[in-house]
Design a protein that fits this description.
About 15% of the residues lie in helices and about 15% in strands. It is an alpha+beta fold and about 350 residues long.
Amino acid sequence: MTVNPSRHAARKASAVMNASYVPVAAVVAAFAVAGCSGANPEKAATGTAAYTSPDPSAFSLPPSDPGARAAIVGQYAQLDPQGIVPRGLLEDAIEYFDVNKSLIPNQGYITVVDFSKFSGDDRFFVVDMQSGAVESHKVAHGLNSDPNWTGYATSFSNVSGSLQSSLGFYMGGELYDGTHPHSMRLDGLSPDGSPNNMANTNVRQRLVVMHEATYVSDSNTDKQGRSDGCLALDPNIEQGVVDRLTNGSLIYAEIAPLNLPVGTGGGGSSSSSSSGGSSSGSSNGGSSSGTSSGGSSSSSGGGTSCNTDGDCNTGNDGSGQMCVNGTCVNGCNADWECPGSTTCVNGQCQ
């Protein structure tokens, strides 16, 4: 897909929001930074209910204790029965949702965005908290998160004007019509200094939102176009997505999990394997090997002791190994663990 990424960077935002929303909305209009929203003063915000921007300091990270996390994850065993969502990231989102449940107004859905994946892959996962069903889509990342337009996001920022995506926990805000119709504001819940490079509390001021974009297509398996940092979706599905996530749904964007998975839900203990095949670990930091449909577990790659995947890839050497249950085994959770030009696909370097 050919795009002109500079057309977004050239925009200046003049955000104008409905007065029924949080007072900070009025402040957003004063920020003349490159953003995705570009709200049109002639088009008022169209949220279906009053929404108040949350206070990030009121939210807590999930517990690190495996037993506490297992107790939480066990309450949501119905989620993702096919093992579609990278297990480590899904458990992060489940645990964060649970410990902050009283602060999350829209509890119908959680969304996981796996920015470690290639932009031509499905990496935007909407999880129905009642049925457990998962809906998968393509999503764009920021222009300067991928300056050479490789299709991989490698840099993230919470700084205005950076044109980069931000990692962390988000809350879906109010809907509005702007440069892109039927867009949704975002509020970041992860302050600077959070683990795993999470930092996104400036996204509202940066005018980083969720919107449709013609440079994103769910049918395109090549690299997608790039945004100014926004979560840009295929126009054919964007409205249906934001209508479900607006007014306080939890959204989580990361490249690696906060903790190793502890649950056994969805396609095995921690894997997201292809049907009938073998795989090892989840696509983001699995704690044990498994498969979603009858595959075999991975074999050990030497048995070196480890605490993290980095212990198996000293100096980011791309050894093609990952840490599973304290031992380095053959497999991968991210592309940087793969040698040469190979990439991580379903837990294996290919």
